[in-house]
Amino acid sequence: MINPFKKYRIDRLFFHSFAIVLIALIVVTAWTSYSNSSKALVQTTSHYQQQLLDELNNEITTRLVMIEQISLSSSRDSELTNFLLNRQDEFERYRSRGGVESALANLTYAIPLIQGIDLYMDNPIPSERQSYIQFRNLADLNKQVGAGCLEKSDFCWSREYNFPSAQGEVPVLSFSRKIISENDYLGVLVVHIKANEIRKLLTGNSDGSNRIMADSEGQQIMKIGDAMDQNDWSRWIDLKSNKSGYVHIPATDGSRDTLLVYSRMDNSIWTLIEFTSWKQITASSLKLAEWIGLIGIAAVLLVLLLTHFLSKQFTKPIKNLVTAMRMYSVGGDNVELPVDYENEFGYLFSGYRKQNERIEELYLSLERRYEQQRKAEIEALQANINPHFLYNMLDQLNWMAIEAGQDELSRILELMGRMFRIGLSNGNSFITIADELLHIECYLEIQQLRWGEGLEYRIEAASGLQELYIPKLTLQPFVENSIVHGFNKQRSGYVSIVMERLDDALHIVIEDNGAGLKQSGHSPHKRHTGGYGIRNVRERVAGYFGENYRITLREREEGGTRVEIMLPLLTEPPAGKD
Hints:
This is Histidine kinase. The chain crosses the membrane at residues 12-34, 291-310. Helix content is 50%, strand content 21%. By secondary structure, the chain is of the alpha+beta class. The longest helix has 66 residues, at 10-75.
């Protein structure tokens, strides 16, 4: 994952970071405010609506229970039951009809809520068309709206419907009650009440309300406003419970979010339901969130302007420093940094100026060192004349020994010349293994001439290793150490040199049968670490190849010293090492 603080410009990161944080903060604040205020408004609205519906339910129940009681008392009136029994002659029956009609008419006149009364019976005596009291044939009961529920009950209410009257079609609610005397089914008394009066009660003082009045079976009796269909709201209310409550109905296809508040009372069979648009309730919360958003946007713009100004103030000195670093050149006309900063930028500028001063000093020092190096190289070239002069002198001494018949001395001078030539090797630090072995052979042969038959040696190296490269004069210090220190108290000695390839490394083993590390006559520490020559080889190997390659010295169990050297396999001299 890419770290933006390592890739993008600081001023942009500073600006955008503040912008994102502020916008996120405002969005969260607006949403939290909207959510909490919406919940509070919904709870408050549902509480007051429920209280209002309970009051309306109580008032409507009082009115409708009065109608039920009036219907009950009328159905038990002896004059009405005698009339329905139909045991009188025609004259008495006609006279009884008048009394019943008068009694029912008095109820209609006394109670303005009643629109009219219908009495269903066998063999009715027809009434005038304009009369509020109508005697109807029991066989026509199925035409009466809502009378079908009498099959399961002795009384019931109908839904709102239009009732034909002398004034025309009038919306009514009808209450039907069976008239039974001594288990005889005599007829049905139907009281029609004015639906507009109940509608006024249901509406209350809230114009534009959306309300429904339903019975205990969930049957919709009356509806005002734009209320839901019965199939949509009935599944959200438990009509078997007498508790009031509210529920949030989420939006579905073709509908909208709605708050449903309902009123159920212990002494009432009625359920009053009010529907309120969720959007209407939360409109003020949404308005509050919008205002918070507008204020937040203004605050964001103000803060972003301030952030932009601050980011410029922060990044300006950094840009000046970057420009000065990019344009810097030793001894050139460089960018001058401000000197009036006293904060962290001032420390940076001061540090940068001090660094430039040190660079200038270092550059001058390098120039002086370069001049000194050039002088040293010239002196080294001049010093090379001396080794060549000595090499030529050895050659002349060799010819003089030959002329004098000193064959052994001549051989020694010839071997020394070869060693001297390999030691020079045109100034190279790395030579082939073949040259290194030739050098050590010359040295050992010279020592044999000095020791006679007392010194023996063995050199083994695979032919495939001859062309590889090795640091110059790697073997000679160890062989010399064996002869000079290991054999100094002996009259004979043996030296073995074995080179082999071990994985990806060159493995060299040098062994002697001398006095060993502890009895060579030198201090163990000095012999273990080696003198100047061995220390020189150690330092060169460590400098060339690091700690992965090493030189170890240890005692042999049978006596003498064993040296192990691990070097890399080099098919050519390392670059920059010659």
